[in-house]
Amino acid sequence: MIKQMAVATRRPGMTHTEYVDYVKHIHGYQITCGHEWNGNLCKYNQNYVYDGVYGQKKDVLTGGYQVVYESDSITELYFPDEQSMGAVFSDPYVASVVGPDGQNFSDLSKSRSFIVTEEEVEVPYPAEGGFKVYYFLKKNDEISEDEFRKLWFETHKQVLDSSKVLAQALKRFVNNVQLEGNNADYFGSKESLHYSGLATLWFSTIQAFRQYQQEFEQRSIDKGGFVDLSKSYALFVDENNIL
């Protein structure tokens, strides 16, 4: 199965509450669900952002934030395969109704889109529920994608091995493995930063994730800084299944 992740920012002149109301009830239930997708679109989640953390504390000493996104939601669209995804985006209904509706709620120039497959990462104490967090990791430009991935999962395991409390707090971990190409042009995005690590995590509490994040990032520093922490960030969301 293939998933498109679209990180969206509300348009100017709109509050976050107004954005969520519109994207849920009008764009989601009314417009998207008001069409027959013939099995090409098999699942549609909206994730409403209610908090986030960007960069690292020392950025304040070097001019402040190096990256900050006023993200309001993350959409997840699931397709059986690439052919089905292509059928959805080439559907005349998308071109005439779904696409044009975007300007009613979203600043399309700030959207970020990723085409991925989901890889379940084994956790020591799997469980349902928890607080959902998206963790966007930008690798250090001096290392390869393969080296980053090796260090990422090695460090993740070390954090959990060093703390049973954190190991028990992590309920689920999905690695969103990026595929070649994306549909950023569909949204008219002007964003250019590439994120090598796209994790979706479920923790028992937000505080547990923050402790995990601090431990992980300190170990990253100790290993030579394989993560560009100033340009990495996490978003906390409430998930809503639309379709």
Q: What is the rounded distance between the termini?
A: 16 Å
Strand content: 25-35%
Radius of gyration: 18 Å
How many domain regions? 1
The ordered string of helix (H) and strand (E) elements is EHEEHHEEHHEHEHE
Count of individual helical segments: 7
Number of strands: 8
Could you tell me the mean pLDDT?
94
Q: According to CATH, what is the topology?
A: Alpha-Beta Plaits
pLDDT < 50 stretches: none
| CATH architectural category | 2-Layer Sandwich
Structural class: alpha+beta
Largest sheet properties = 8 strands, antiparallel, barrel
Enumerate the strands of the largest sheet in spatial order, edge to edge or round the barrel. 1-3-2-8-5-7-6-4
What coarse outline follows from CA principal-axis ratios? globular
What does this structure look like?
This protein has an eight-stranded antiparallel β-barrel with strand order 1-3-2-8-5-7-6-4. With 243 residues, it is of the alpha+beta class. It starts with a strand and ends with a strand. It is built from seven helices and eight strands. α4 (145-162) crosses α7 (206-222). The model has no long low-confidence stretch (mean pLDDT 94). The longest helix has 18 residues, at 145-162. It has helices at 16-32, 82-89, 92-101, 145-162, 164-169, 184-187, 206-222, and strands at residues 2-8, 43-54, 73-79, 112-120, 131-137, 170-178, 197-203, 233-241. It is globular, with a radius of gyration of 18 Å. It has one domain: 2-Layer Sandwich (Alpha-Beta Plaits), CATH 3.30.70.100.
